[in-house]
Design a protein that fits this description.
Radius of gyration: 17 Å
Strand order of the largest sheet: 2-1-3-4
CATH class of the largest domain: Mainly Alpha
Number of domains: 2
Structural class: alpha+beta
Distance between the termini: 20 Å
Number of helices: 8
CATH architecture of the largest domain: Up-down Bundle
Largest sheet: 4 strands, mixed
Number of strands: 4
CATH topology of the largest domain: Glutathione S-transferase Yfyf (Class Pi), Chain A, domain 2
Length: 203
Amino acid sequence: MYTLYFIPGACSLATQAILNELGQESTLVHKLEADRFETLNPAGTVPVLVDGDKVLNEGVAIILHLLNKHRNNLIPESGEARHRAIENMMFANATMHPAYGRLFFAQANVTDPEVKQQIFDSASVAINKLWQVVEARLEHTPYLGGSDISPADILLTVYSRWGDFFPVDIVLGPHTRQMVDRVLNRESMQRAIQREQDYSAGE
């Protein structure tokens, strides 16, 4: 049994969906309800996964730990295909995620409305360029990993929902929208979203 520390709608949603894909049970703990969360992750970010006596931080590192530990069809076992799968995960986590991070930073730290909107607009331009990269990669395949879902598809699907919280126009191409819809409709993602909602509702 894993323990996953989360914030609703954050990157931890992807970790929970991966756990569901792997058929692994987990206990959810909201970061704000954790006892001294900073001892688990001094950076203060989620996800944090507790696996026995191991405390694991950083979303992609956690996902790779789970994929290496449990047999799965989410990532190739070796070779060029595995390298590409990890590359796609890093594109999502290290390139797309920080682009969205500019929106969250401006929302939390910029008080001047005009300056804040300028940052929002600039960030949305960068984000849309990255989604164009994704669109090109999906032109001839339903998922970034090919015919089967990959961890990068799950990560990007979680990020794609973040634009709704800001006054920006984030555009997903038709192939990208189809991929996101496929991932959102999977039982693993539906269960993860519902568990977060139930947790927040106190059920």
